[in-house]
Specification:
- This protein is of the alpha/beta class and about 270 residues long.
- The chain has a single domain, classed as TIM Barrel, CATH 3.20.20.
- The chain is built from nine helices and ten strands.
- The strands form two sheets. Strands 3-4-5-6-7-8-9-10 form an eight-stranded parallel β-barrel, surrounded by six helices. Strands 1-2 form a two-stranded antiparallel ribbon.
- Helix 1 runs parallel beside helix 2, helix 4 crosses helix 5 and helix 8 runs parallel beside helix 9.
- The chain is globular.
- The chain binds phosphoenolpyruvate (PEP) and manganese (II) ion.
- Phosphoenolpyruvate binds next to loops.
- The site of phosphoenolpyruvate has 9 residues, from loops.
Length: about 270
């Protein structure tokens, strides 16, 4: 089919390795761990999470400074001021920044402060955004759309890749189904299917995938066993006080244990 080509294994057999510099990579046959709060909240919180990541050998920190919220009255992020503060501390600590870009106009101002641009599930088919991300020299992590098919995720990736940016990571973060007992339905079927169809690395987001803190670790480890190249999850010192997604956010002790379990599980795979 003509729906996607360049991101397919038929086009390129060799798995794509994303090199963020400083020895941080996301690639087939390895296990990348990205962790951090749903939202960047304060300088104190940034330092707190960086300390936790360093203690646990995690080199990539996720966090939103521009937040897509269902309600316009919910916390919408610290914006560029938060990103600049975060960058300063992350750089000093050798930690890479993974953060969501919501619109074309933000790409330029964010560019120098970001290691991985995240395209959120609500923007997977924002084709103007994807076109612009295709023109830059920074890694892009594309989440699967809220009700998006695997095929549509690959077509979204094709937008970026065909624009000239080959530094792409695919992310399964759960889809909306009839099931309401969990926030989303984490579709781990997508992992082996994406890995068989595409040369791009695939990561799993168990936090948004199930949306229930106590079950995030199980789904993360299931993601590892499904063949994922990385796990991205939410962590906060005091999840119940988090500005967003506290219900699915791990505390530091849970996160430390999970990071260790992810590595052990991967080693057994
Ligand atoms: C997030 O990573 O906090 C987020 C908003 O994710 P998603 O776009 O998958 O809902
Ligand atoms: Mn979140």
């Amino acid at each position: 089919s003509d729906d996607y080509k360049l991101v397919s294994k038929k086009w390129k057999v060799k798995p794509t390795c994303i090199d963020l510099g400083g020895g941080v990579t996301i690639k087939d046959g390895d296990m990348a761990i990205m962790a951090g709060p749903c939202s960047i909240e304060s300088e104190e919180q940034i330092l707190d999470v960086i300390g936790h990541l360093k203690e646990n050998g995690i080199r990539m920190m996720r966090g939103g400074v521009f937040k897509p919220r269902s309600s316009p009255y919910a916390f919408r992020g610290l914006g560029m001021e938060g990103l600049r503060l975060w960058y300063q501390h992350a750089k000093a600590a050798g930690i890479k920044i993974v953060t969501e870009v919501m619109q074309v106009s933000q790409i330029e101002e964010m560019h120098d402060y970001v290691d991985v641009f995240q395209v959120g599930a609500r923007n997977t088919q924002n084709f103007n955004l994807l076109d612009e991300l295709g023109k830059i020299d920074k890694a892009v992590l594309i989440k699967r759309g809220i009700s998006g098919t695997i095929e549509e995720l690959l077509q979204s990736a094709e937008y970026v890749f065909s624009g000239g940016n080959e530094k792409l990571i695919l992310c399964e973060r759960g889809i909306r189904t009839y099931e309401r007992a969990s926030r989303n339905t984490l579709d781990l079927n997508a992992v082996p299917i994406l890995k068989s169809k595409s040369h791009l690395p695939v990561v799993v987001d168990p936090s948004h995938g199930i949306g229930i803190r106590d079950f995030v670790a199980q789904m993360a480890l299931s993601g590892v066993m499904s063949g994922a190249d990385g796990i991205i999850y939410e962590v906060h010192r005091d999840p119940d006080k988090a500005y967003s997604d506290g219900q699915q956010t791990l505390n530091f002790a849970q996160s430390a244990l999970l990071a260790e379990q992810i590595r052990k599980t991967f080693a057994m795979r």
